[in-house]
Amino acid sequence: MVSTRTTPHVVDEQIDKKDSSQVHYIEHDDDEKASPPEYHDAHIDIDHGYDPAFIHSTTRKIDWRLIPPLIAMYCISSIDRKNVSLARAANNEVMQKELNLGTSRYNIITLLFFPPYILAELPSQLGLRKFGPRYWLGSAVFLWGLVTIGLGFSNNWVAMAAMRALLGMFEACLFPGAAYLIACWYPRKQMARRSAVFYITSIAIGGLGNLLGYAISLMHGVRGLSGWRWIFIIEGVITVAIAIMGFLLLVDFPDRSTFLSEEQKEMIITRIDRDRGDSEADPMTMNKFISYLCEPKIWLFAMWFCVTTLGTYSMSYFLPRILRGMGFTDTMSQVLLAPPYVWAVVPAMVHAYFADKYRNMRAWMILSGCLQCILGTVLYSQLPERFKAGRYAGTFLAVGAANGNVGLIISWAQCSIRNQSKRGFTSALIVAFGGIGGILASLLFMDKESKKGYPTGVWSVVGLNCFQVITVIGLRFFFAYRNRLADRGKVVIEGDDKFRYQL
């Protein structure tokens, strides 16, 4: 009889080191090899042969080492990119006077964050593998922290606009890098929840940053500086501190990690290979780059992300004005910003749970978010003024649904592709289109329409979410059709005859 591995965590298996995607099973009572389980299908047990307690403990160890530093980094990212709206809401008249800030100039300042953010997305992924997440992402956070401090010392609106452009360039590294890193660590059935926890926790805490911004603005006059300047300076110092934390705590890719045992790393890599067969990094080449550019599904995911971020950025930049339009005072508008972002955790985590649990509900969860976003937008913008509570409830639906769909779209895109080079490209392109959503928010929610409730921006959000509803349903049934063809051996999906789309 052939001997088996003695480890208590792996049951009756030996792994061929030459091909980590093939796992051979050996029975204890005879020499006959059992067939290895097929991988890549949504219904295959990728955990076969491993002790569930060992998988659970290793996964939790990864969760605690990987996700909290990313949450802290993206939390301060979401605060830093929208603190210009907090500063304006806190000391509007003072800020306008000190920066010679007219109505259109504020829109320019918010808009100029995004062109460098978009252009730097794809190049930002090239250094992630070479230098490692700890140094690449940590350096980016450190640099934009310095820029944020500099924003507090701006002497005119041109200087602030230029530094906002620098902020966009450095922030471009984080989100696609984090999405790519999470996808490299987890099999598909665990991606949506981790992506949701990473993103929505950051946004919820960032929502509380509105209260922090208001509290900091009360330092108006300290050391001769206006309250809006202290918002940038103190939040910039916090950003630098989080960057140092990132240097110390952020983990590398699975094959280069040092906090796991060899047995744990082998288990992580084996599960990923069974799930989709791409645990090993592959270099980006020009042929691959061109082929990825020609894939319609990646562009469709990117367009959805643009639609979703139009909703998130419009709330981030213009919700204070929207709340004041409902009749709330400036102080109450600042206070009431936080609850919708805290609420966003609920729909995001519920949708992510069902997306991962059943795996063929990913499209329906995104669809649910779109419909809630449409309903919420209509409620806060179209209800008569006397229904103040109903209008405010609409902001909960709009903020929760739009932010909840961010993690769902990222995770479904990553579940629908293979190869690590493609993951880096896809996450960068999708997040770049998120920047386009930010540009649209800056252009469509025009200050001159603020007293009318931003009708151009509002109906753009509604119309584009209707487009997303139709295309999500279409892609879902197209994926199902391709899976049926693959089952009959008529097509090969993602270059692997075992790969199937999750719906």
Q: Would you mind describing this structure in some detail?
A:
- Helices cover 70% and strands 2% of the residues.
- With 503 residues, it is an all-alpha fold.
- A three-stranded antiparallel beta sheet has the order 1-2-3, with no helix packed on it.
- It folds into two domains: 1-36, no CATH class; 52-255 and 274-487, MFS general substrate transporter like domains (Growth Hormone, Chain: A, Up-down Bundle), CATH 1.20.1250.20.
- The protein is built from 21 helices and three strands.
- A hairpin with a 7-residue loop joins strand 1 and strand 2 (23-26).
- Helix 18 (362-382) packs antiparallel against helix 21.
- The chain has helices at 52-90, 92-99, 103-111, 114-119, 121-124, 126-131, 133-151, 157-171, 174-185, 191-217, 227-249, 262-276, 286-293, 296-325, 330-335, 338-343, 345-358, 362-382, 388-415, 420-444, 455-487, and strands spanning 13-15, 23-26, 33-34.
- The chain is globular.
Task: Provide a quick synopsis of the model.
The protein is an all-alpha fold and about 500 residues long.
- Please identify the oligomeric state: single chain
Number of helices: 21
- As a percent range, the share of strand residues is under 5%
Strand order of the largest sheet: 1-2-3
Under the CATH scheme, the architecture of the largest domain is: Up-down Bundle
* Number of separate strands: 3
**What would CATH call the homologous superfamily of the largest domain?**
MFS general substrate transporter like domains
Classification by helices and strands:
mainly alpha
Shape summary? globular
Radius of gyration: 24 Å
| CATH uppermost class of the largest domain | Mainly Alpha
CATH topology of the largest domain: Growth Hormone, Chain: A
Domain tally = 2
Helix content: over 70%
State the order of secondary-structure elements, H for helix, E for strand: EEEHHHHHHHHHHHHHHHHHHHHH
Distance between the termini: 43 Å
Low-confidence stretches: 1-42
Report on the biggest sheet: 3 strands, antiparallel
Give the mean pLDDT: 84
Pfam family, one: MFS_1
Biased composition (Basic and acidic residues): 10-37
Transmembrane segments: 135-153, 165-185, 197-216, 228-251, 298-319, 331-354, 361-380, 392-413, 425-446, 458-479
Main location: membrane
